[in-house]
């Protein structure tokens, strides 16, 4: 049942290229995105004044990454909220707000309650869900399914990746319908998204290097993931993967924020993982890594091929294929999933069923 893999998590990590391809295939044909199946018409898309994305855990991390893509491509202001906070905050919503909820299970109590709150307030709701027929899928006005298939491992991997891709397609379509993109650019972006599965496969083919590095760092006490923009959002997910299955304390920090307090935790040998896949932010994040290094940190860098100068700063480097800045997060997260997995295995832990956690959180 684990398809020759030792754990469901590794099986599911390897299913990502196919899961993403299927998910893209369900929404794209002939270089065009089709939302007519979910009856989200162009008039509605044109009228959206702002978007609020609501989710928990890794699904919230998808929201965090996608806000950059939505705002840059479509120009629609986006707010990303934890479902457990949104509900009690008395959020300001207007009739042209679109609330997007993201959930693998479709049963997360706080996310479901947030969806109900939005509906009660008369706001349009769109759900990105993996489980067909789940409560969230049944109750949202519009539903986009991730075709990840059943996810058994408590730590999400393939559902997260499929959710991310759905947000890209949604952002692209919103941008196109609202006249923010030329036909040619729209098609080029779609082609770029269609490259994601093969690029992920390339990263998976090189997983032994990550395994080797994981064995070196498996006894870390603390790990810090730093980056800016989408790189920061990917760090949030990398950090959660690490802590939930390896039980190593880790934090994701917006790289520029470190020096406002957290850098005092860096001591001799502390592992700092810098995510440097956003070209325009590279120099800024590198300088934060140098600051950590001068306080004794041991540095791992994650960057696109071609950025070889990173080896002058980082002690260990993992490269991912080059890709458009909006979508490269889908590649950057893969080595971090692998790292969390291999550290957990090296520590002899129950990878698929980490302590204190349940696959679906149906209590508030
Ligand atoms: C982490 C993880 C959780 C879920 C969160 C939301 O690996 O899986 O953080 O992302 O509990 O669950 P869903 O997506 O089912 O609403």
Automatic annotation (TrEMBL):
It is found in: Cytoplasm. The keyword Repeat applies. This is Glutamine--fructose-6-phosphate aminotransferase [isomerizing]. The gene is glmS. Keywords: Aminotransferase, Cytoplasm, Glutamine amidotransferase, Repeat, Transferase. Its main location: cytoplasm. Residues 41-180, 213-354 form the SIS domain. Catalyzes the first step in hexosamine metabolism, converting fructose-6P into glucosamine-6P using glutamine as a nitrogen source. Homodimer. The chain holds residues 259 to 622 of 622 of the full protein. GO terms for molecular function: carbohydrate derivative binding; glutamine-fructose-6-phosphate transaminase (isomerizing) activity.
């Amino acid at each position: 049942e684990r398809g020759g893999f030792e754990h469901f998590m590794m099986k599911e990590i390897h299913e990502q290229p196919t899961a993403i391809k299927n998910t893209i295939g369900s929404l794209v044909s002939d270089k065009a995105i089709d939302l007519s199946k979910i009856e989200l018409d162009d008039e509605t898309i044109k009228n959206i004044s702002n978007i609020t994305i609501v989710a928990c855990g890794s699904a919230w991390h998808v929201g965090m990454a996608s806000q950059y893509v939505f705002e840059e491509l479509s120009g629609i202001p986006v707010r990303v909220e934890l479902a457990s906070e949104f509900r009690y905050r008395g959020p300001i919503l207007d009739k042209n707000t679109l609330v997007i909820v993201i959930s693998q299970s479709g049963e997360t109590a706080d996310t479901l309650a947030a969806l109900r709150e939005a509906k009660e307030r008369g706001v349009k709701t769109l759900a990105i869900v993996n489980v067909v027929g789940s409560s969230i899928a049944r109750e949202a006005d519009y539903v986009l399914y991730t075709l990840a298939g059943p996810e058994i491992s408590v730590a999400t991997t393939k559902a997260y990746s499929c959710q991310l891709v759905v947000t890209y397609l949604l952002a692209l379509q919103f941008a196109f319908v609202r006249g923010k993109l030329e036909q040619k650019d729209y098609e080029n972006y779609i082609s770029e998204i269609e490259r994601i599965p093969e690029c992920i496969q390339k990263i998976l083919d090189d997983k032994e290097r990550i395994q080797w590095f994981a064995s070196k760092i498996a006894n870390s006490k603390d790990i810090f993931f730093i980056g800016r923009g989408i790189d920061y959002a990917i760090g949030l997910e990398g950090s959660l993967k690490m802590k939930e299955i390896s039980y190593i304390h880790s934090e994701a920090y917006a790289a520029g924020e470190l020096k406002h307090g957290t850098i005092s935790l860096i001591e001799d040998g502390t592992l700092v993982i810098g995510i440097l896949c956003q070209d325009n932010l590279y120099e800024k994040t590198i300088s934060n890594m140098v600051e950590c290094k001068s306080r004794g940190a041991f540095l791992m860098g994650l960057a696109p091929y071609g950025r070889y100068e990173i080896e002058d700063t980082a002690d260990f480097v993992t490269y991912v294929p080059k890709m458009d800045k909006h979508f490269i997060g889908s590649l950057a997260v893969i080595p971090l999933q692998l790292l969390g997995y291999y550290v957990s295995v090296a520590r002899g832990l129950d990878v698929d069923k980490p302590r204190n956690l349940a696959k679906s959180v149906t209590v508030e």
